[in-house]
Task: structure prediction
Amino acid sequence: MKTVLITGCSSGFGLETARLFLERDWRVIATMRSPRDDLLPRSDRLRVLRLDVTDASSIREAVAAAGAVDVLVNNAGFGAPAPLELISMETVRALFETNTFGTIAVTQALLPQMRERGSGVVVNVTSSVTYKPLPLVGVYRGAKAAVNALTESLAAEVEAFGVRVHIVLPGSSGETRFRETAQAGLRGADDAAYAEFIAKAIARMRASTGAGTRAKDVAEAVWRAATDPAAPMRLPAGADAEQWAAETASAHPNP
Result:
C-alpha cells in the first residue's frame, strides 16, 4: 500500500485531495498546522499530523512520524492580495515563507528517502495566476512562479534517482476559503489612490467564479501526477486554468 503526505489539509484543495486518496485505498498522512480529527472519514489508513511548513522542527517531527512516503504533495499556501505599493514587507516575507520556502523545506526533508529508495513523486501545487499577469496578486504570483521554476530544475536533478516531479496549477475556486480569506485581508481597499481600481478588480474576480476550479479538479490532477508516469510535468486544474494554459501555449509556442 502506497503512502501520500499532503500539506495544508485543513480545508480546500488539500482536504479534498486527502479524501480522494483515502477513497482510492491509499495510506494518507494529512498534515495541517492545527490538527483536527473531524475533517476526514475515520480510517486505519489515515494519520493526521501537525505540520507547519515554516517551522523546521515541526517539519522534522512530522517527517519522522510519517515514515516511508511514496508521494509528497506540497499544497500548503495562502494569498494576501494588495497593490505592490501597499503590501507590507512583513506580508511579503510571510507569503514567500509559506508558499516558496515551506515547499523547499518539506521537499528537502523527504527527498533523501525517495532518492535512496529509487522511487517517489513530488507534486507541487502552485497557481494558474502564474500563466499571465493579474493585478493585486503580484507577490503571491511571484512566490508561486518561483516554485514552478525550482520544480523544473528539481525534475532534472532527481530523474536519475527514479523520482518524478510535477506541478499542479489550480484555477480560481469559489469552493474553498482561499479566495474569501484573501479578499478579507485585502489591503488598500480604502486607499485614495487605489480604491476604485481595487473595487473593479475584485468585481471582475467575483464575476469569474462560475468558470472556475472545483476542489475535485485539483485532487484529480494531483492523483494523475502521483499515479501516471506519463503525466506531463505541468497539469492545469479546472476549466479556467486549462483555458489560461491553452492561451499561454498559443501565445508562446515552442520554437
User: Anything to note?
Assistant: Residues 89-117 form the longest helix (29 residues). The CA atoms of residues 6 and 223 lie 12 Å apart. The two ends are 43 Å apart (CA to CA). Residues 3-236 form a domain with the Rossmann fold fold (CATH 3.40.50.720).
